[in-house]
Amino acid sequence: MSQENSRTEVVSPARTFRGSVRLPGDKSISHRYAMLAGLAEGKSTFANFSTGADPHSSLACMQQLGASVTKEPSAITITGAAGNFQQPTGALDCGNSGSTMRMLAGLVAPHVGTFTFVGDASLSARPMERIRGPLEKMRARISLTQGHAPMTVHGGSLQAIHFDTPIASAQVKTAVLFAGLQAQGETSLTESVRTRDHSEHALRAFGAELERSSDGIRIRGGQSLHAIDAVIPGDLSSAAFFLCATLLFPDAQIVFDDLGMNPSRSTLLDVLVSMGLKVQVLNLEEKHGELIGTVQANGAACIQGATIAGTLSAQLIDELPVLAAIAPYTNSGVTIRDAKELRVKESDRIALVVRNLRAMGAEVTEHEDGMSIPGNQALHGGLIDSGDDHRIAMAFAIAALRATGETAIQGAEAAAISFPEFFPLLRTMSQS
Ligand code: S3P
Q1: Overall number of domains in the chain
Q2: What would the pLDDT profile of 340-363 be if each residue is shown by its tens digit?
């Protein structure tokens, strides 16, 4: 993000937090539907597609690969390339989106052609070796720039493999599944930690057969996909910010309609309940394998601390910045361990959370794989550096609601990567 585009949002302390909202569609599901609809035969229509810039990077890439995309306020329509991607005339620009670059690499690798992927400065610093390993084992050829983008995938006929995913990453798992769908033979994989399973549900929704057992996942190659119509569930990772804001005030209340409640993501609610949030889930239903519900949450008189480690850290990876940002307001603090992956997200989220907590007067200890934040701390308003990272900008806007004095969030425009409506909604829901 260039300096000229940098916007500062000033967040004032609130007395309470109240609102009722239907959030834009889940970012992870939107990416997968955009990609699979772009490969499928026929016309797919998606209502409540994510408004975030990242899934729109995926849509733009699909257009370059030969899919036709129409954006209307009520829905996005994608006519797929019917199994045959065209050779793009230029580089596929993934913007800030790691999901686009990693998952799409797997989707295009079985196609004859040369596909070059580029991204912004943040994405160009993120590790890509993790997808080169399995895709080259399947016989694609991938050139990286010192382990990063720009990345060129030299695609062609692929062979199925067995892959034990060494790091907990749904993006890597997805790259292998998307390549395996179009390879020769049956691809199988195991995961050390069960990561979000939207790809498995999406592949089935688009007509692919995929087997899941305690031994892992299997997908047969040579399968074709058909178009679907879907309403995308609201994004639980966006809701996380407002759920944490609700936790901060005893009389706060928030209601989300049509919120994504996929069990591989909703561990967040269990943690927030353990911290004191009162949560009611109503009208739970399943659409294309994804659970959707109405969620009502009420605040707590006393906010309990938490320890987040092991598999929990992997499952809550996107929510850790906001949980850390509210940690000083808990009664016994928050410890986060086994979360080294945070260092290679859109920013080094451990370093940046620690620096911004200190800017608000908090005491915090940084670990290589996390941080420890004591509870019962009063924060003052401060100058926050988003580091051009959407989740950092939003996390500290939530911490600011209980601070003394105003907080200035520099680089607040980064929120648009996943949740452009965040600051306007925050203003209507926080009551002074
Ligand atoms: C995502 C997986 C996670 C997450 C990212 C979205 C996905 O990344 O942090 O925001 O949609 O699969 P990793 O797979 O790299 O952990």
Answers
A1: 2
A2: 999 999 999 999 999 999 999 999
